[in-house]
Amino acid sequence: MSVHATAASLPVTPEGLPSAHWDEALLRRYDKSGPRYTSYPTALAFHEGFTAVNLAQALEQSNASQRPLSLYVHVPFCRKICFYCACNKIATKNTSLAEPYLSRLDREMVLTARHLDTSRPVKQLHWGGGTPTFLSLAQMGDLIDRLDARFGLSSAPDRDYAIEIDPREADVFTLRHLQSLGFNRLSLGVQDLDPRVQKAINRHQPRVLTETLMDEAHRLGFRSLNLDLIYGLPFQTEKSFAETLTQVIELSPARLSVFNYAHLPARFKPQRRINVDDLPGADEKLSILRTTIEMLTAAGYVHIGMDHFAKPEDSLAMAQANGTLQRNFQGYSSHAKCDLIGLGVSAISHVGDSYAQNPTDLAGYENALDQGRLATVKGLRLTKNDLIRADVIERLMCDMRLDLAAISQRWQIDAADYFSHALEKLHTAEQDGLITRLGDTLSATPMGRLLIRQLAMAFDAYWPEQSGQRYSKMV
Fold it and tell me: Which of 285, 309, 303 is nearest to 473 (CA)?
């Protein structure tokens, strides 16, 4: 966990150590492309041999576990396209176009609920996009009513019901409505507060929009607020991003996600509107990252790992402290051991030992549901080896350490022997000071935390075959 530096005059790194420990040459050497491990195996391993029938079987088999449910709903609509965006989205200003989509979502809920014991509590709900607040207030209410009718939503104080918000498409009335619908956590997209950067990414968003919503959310008693920022965007510099961070720290969100922009115009058409010459160079990006970690840590935020920061009293930091932090397709989560049901175009479910993904194109999603079947187009049932490696990678990504003795006990294996090849691959990282080993415990160093994806890749049995695929860089 992050702590203030003992020497108050020194800037701090993720673990509160003097910034002299920052090794830029090492970061550059390890700054390769690699998975973010929101799942293991990653979606690249999913195959079309896994069908809607397999998902139905997984849903039915999961009932015996009585695990709680986590629902993810993908709302793909946006009024305006941000040029950096890599999400699955549909640009339109006509909210009536959402009506047929909401009908298909309800059909998918009905088909899914047929296979589920719906007395299982829905501990987690997340609306993502696109822009979920594209929906009218009436449409949001209708969608919540349908979810409640099909699955039975919770009013328990420890529920985690979150929605992603574009501050340009919401106001105080939106927040009051969301609170009445049962949402208790908000994630606001900000990206950058510099007007020049905003213009370059087609996202004009004055600070007052974000500030007004945050003030109202605090007044209404929303449990947790997250702000999304992105570094590596056009015209950003270490100085300009520090100015954004200063303003963000003043706003005092409970959580922050600071993502590394991956410029992949061949894959994401809107990014072709960004002039590559306007992007900060590799050295500048590293300076922005370093300043971000120093400023947020000095402001009291815990560096959870990778791009996530949280106040010590936030549930995310508390989950990491007690070893129950989890990763899923929305990033880090404080609600472990749920079966995740993904609803909507491109959504992914994780039920028991199976992953299932819906079509990424709207027509394919609609056609499947119009034929009266679940929309699964591909997926994967995990082998025991997959499950063991998924556990190891998740613990490393969440705890920033790995207890081989605990893995041995949990899976009834000799973890040191089972992962001898992986541990051998980590030997260089250990020599380079990214990881330390004391007996059966591996711990990421402050620099290793920044490159945790690289350390996790050592345990990825699929990686050699997928190494040619396009992933974002580590930092």
Answer: 285
Confidence of residue 24 (pLDDT cuts 50, 70, 90): confident
3-state secondary structure the chain: CCCCCCCCCCCECCCCCEHHHCCHHHHHHHCCECCCCCCCCCHHHCECCCCHHHHHHHHHHHHHHCCCEEEEEEECEECCCCCCCCCCCEECCCHHHHHHHHHHHHHHHHHHHCCCCCCCCEEEEEEEECCHHHCCHHHHHHHHHHHHHHHCECCCCCCEEEEEECHHHCCHHHHHHHHHHCCCEEEEEEECCCHHHHHHCCCCCCHHHHHHHHHHHHHHCCCEEEEEEEECCCCCCHHHHHHHHHHHHHHCCCEEEEEECCCCCCCCHHHHHCCHHHCCCHHHHHHHHHHHHHHHHHCCCEEEECCEEECCCCHHHHHHHCCCCEEECCEEECCCCCEEEEECCCCEEEECCEEEECCCCHHHHHHHHHCCCCCCCEEEECCHHHHHHHHHHHHHHHHCEEEHHHHHHHHCCCHHHHCHHHHHHCHHHHHCCCEEEECCEEEECHHHHHCHHHHHHHHCCCHHHHCCCCCCECC
Residue 381 CA to residue 41 CA, distance in Å, equals 10
Burial of 127 (0-12, 13-18, 19+ CB in 10 A): buried
* CA–CA dist 458, 34 (Å, integer): 11
Residue closest to 22 by CA, chosen among 11, 38, 33, 34: 11
Dihedral sign computed on CA atoms, order 34, 38, 41, 44: negative
pLDDT tens digits for range 144-177: 999 999 999 999 999 999 999 999 999 999 999 9
Q: How far is CA 452 from CA 7, 426, 438, in A?
A: 27, 12, 18
Query: Which pTM value belongs to this model?
Result: 0.91
Strands 308-310 and 255-260: antiparallel
pLDDT at 10 over 80: no
